[in-house]
């Protein structure tokens, strides 16, 4: 059996806490802390760092991302957060008067606010994550000739529902509709295969399940749509540069997703993220997926009785790393505070306790949680 516990020492949070809050923030592993601090010291000591070194850093990090997601490196660029990727997708799609979009009624606001405020004249049609697991085909009732995009959270922030992204992508393809995925609550917890799913866009930031720093994230643009999009956030670094000896000669724009990186990147974030990604690469995302699903299953089995209302699907295929529940006739805030006082860290969302273990958590830690919610 694979020894996940040896990775625990990479996370200082494990020394003091039972840390079950990866749906909020993943603790930064020590190799990421060291890489960021080493680069920061070099910044201080030498100021400028060679462009070629930064390019090599970006490229090696993108290679790890591409491998994790089963995508091509040319389809990957860096963003600051999930929102930025969703906004880039919206700004790149050639929306026309009379178009409509389908979004989630229970989306995390990352995947609804940009639609509401950037597309005030585009009709919004709503579906819920529950509707989609019961029957992904329910989308067909909402789709018509004017449906331009479907934008969904792969894993719901509250109930942890993991939708069937492949089936939904097929429906979008058959109806010539752009498909955007907010992957934030699943990416790093369970495996996703973008080459198989073929969405048009996928956005996920680093600091939850991917255990990376704040201010850095992944934006994927399918190679089949890259050439068809409206130019969006084009800047000087959207062009191809080998060096900066001759700045004023016009350069050609990149044809890869990197053209969305309009200016200087967050190298401190990227170098930390690369270390986090190396851990995923070393263990393997399939092993991580099984471990996360085993841990959530363990917890579900312990609380699956009439005293609890569990809003997360019991089936493995329909969930990822989140289990949300409340104890009937018990104040969730009191329970949440009791857990906190006992150094068990989770989230309280909409009256439900949201438990989100990662691969380095243990069943013994879940037992400590269960002991406190008798
Ligand atoms: C589904 C989902 N998407 C995105 C985010 C965060 O968005 P951003 O990275 O833009 O802050 C969250 C939670 O913070 C989330 O639950």
How would you characterize the overall build of this protein?
By secondary structure, this protein is an alpha/beta fold. The protein has 2 domains: 4-28 and 284-371, Aspartate Aminotransferase, domain 1 (Alpha-Beta Complex); 34-282, Aspartate Aminotransferase, domain 2 (3-Layer(aba) Sandwich). The protein has 13 helices and 13 strands. It has helices at 13-16, 30-46, 51-69, 82-92, 113-118, 129-134, 165-174, 194-197, 223-226, 267-283, 285-303, 332-341, 363-371, and strands at residues 18-19, 76-79, 100-104, 123-127, 147-153, 178-182, 201-205, 217-221, 308-310, 323-327, 344-345, 347-349, 352-355. The protein has a 7-stranded mixed β-sheet with strand order 2-8-7-6-5-3-4, with helices on both faces. The protein has a 4-stranded antiparallel β-sheet with strand order 9-10-13-12, covered by helices on one side. A two-stranded parallel ribbon has the order 1-11. Helix 11 (285-303) packs parallel to helix 13. The two termini are 31 Å apart. The structure holds pyridoxal-5'-phosphate (PLP). Pyridoxal-5'-phosphate (PLP) binds next to helix 4.
Radius of gyration: 21 Å
Q: What oligomeric state best describes the polypeptide chains here?
A: single chain
Major sheet size, sense and barrel closure:
7 strands, mixed
Q: How many angstroms does the end-to-end distance come to?
A: 31 Å
The CATH architecture of the largest domain comes to: 3-Layer(aba) Sandwich
Low-pLDDT sequence parts: none
Small-molecule binders: pyridoxal-5'-phosphate
Under CATH, the topology of the largest domain can be stated as Aspartate Aminotransferase, domain 2
Strand order of the largest sheet: 2-8-7-6-5-3-4
Helix vs. strand class: alpha/beta
The CATH first-level class of the largest domain comes to Alpha Beta
CATH superfamily of the largest domain: Type I PLP-dependent aspartate aminotransferase-like (Major domain)
Mean of all residue-level pLDDT scores? 97
Helix content: 25-40%
Can you count the beta strands?
13
- The portion of residues forming beta strands comes to 5-15%
The H-and-E topology, N to C, reads as: HEHHEHEHEHEHEHEEHHHEEHEEEH
| Shape summary | globular
